[in-house]
Amino acid sequence: MPPLDKHISPSTGVDFLDAITGVLGKTPEPAPEGRRASAVLIPLMEIDGHWHVILTKRASHLRHHAGQISFPGGAIEPGETVAEAALREAHEEIDLHPDHVTVKGHLPSVLTTANYHIAPVLGVVNSTPVLTPQPEEVDRILLEKLHPLLMRRHHRQEPRQYNGLDYKTWVIDHDKEYIWGATAKVIVQWSALMSDDWVAPKDDDNLGAA
Predict the structure, then answer these.
(1) How far apart are CA 90 and CA 121, in angstroms?
(2) 117 lies in which domain range?
(3) 131-152 b/e with 16+ CB inside 10 Å = b?
(4) CA-to-CA distance for 189 and 210, rounded, in angstroms?
(5) Are the C-beta atoms of residues 108 and 29 closer than 8 Å to each other?
(6) Mean pLDDT in consecutive groups of 10 residues from the start of the chain, 210 residues
(7) Is 112 part of any domain?
(8) Residue 118 maps to which CATH number?
(9) Fewer Cβ close by (within 10 Å): the C or N end of the chain?
(10) pTM of the model
């Protein structure tokens, strides 16, 4: 049986790339007043017939979110669009040149406990770039198969505290990395927009094979 990301959905006739990009918005959600406007790039690469996503592990010495798994991204500078900011940050953090990325659209934004408004931009990498982590910001670059991350059975919530306040955060179950917080929420919200055929299939014999 081929991996799920090679299937055509029997109920919709849609392939995996169309399924993951068909839920995107054409424009980003604006940052509410008082929130720190930021953008992240979700870079997708097709490798050996399967879609992968580029993630980073943030450097351990950073003041905010040290050591966390994240998408490349950061603050939107004056005069920049959301997509321009996401592409610039990816270029600065992992040496992914904007010319190598085709922007496909926007996913729902995330508000964080640290007062950030994160606008996710999805792009397809149209080459095989040599990526280099910028050591001041990035400890290492991860290339993860996308489909298992989107599977709803891998999503859960766990309690945390921030500045003395209790809250729940999303976690993506992974055999090697601890993926949580805003990064996990972006993925969970993305998965929620997709058809059950792809992210919550009744036949789960092949889950995680993508």
Answers:
(1) 11
(2) 4-198
(3) bebeeebbeebbebbbbbbbbe
(4) 20
(5) yes
(6) 52 77 96 96 94 91 74 96 98 97 98 93 94 94 96 95 88 94 97 92 46
(7) yes
(8) 3.90.79.10
(9) N
(10) 0.89
Query: Is residue 203 assigned to a domain?
Result: no
- What is the separation, in whole angstroms, between the first and last Cα of the chain? 11
Residue 207 lies in a domain: no
User: Burial level of 3, CB count in 10 A (0-12/13-18/19+)?
Assistant: middle
Query: Angle at the Cα of 25 (from 65 to 90), degrees rounded to 5?
Result: 40
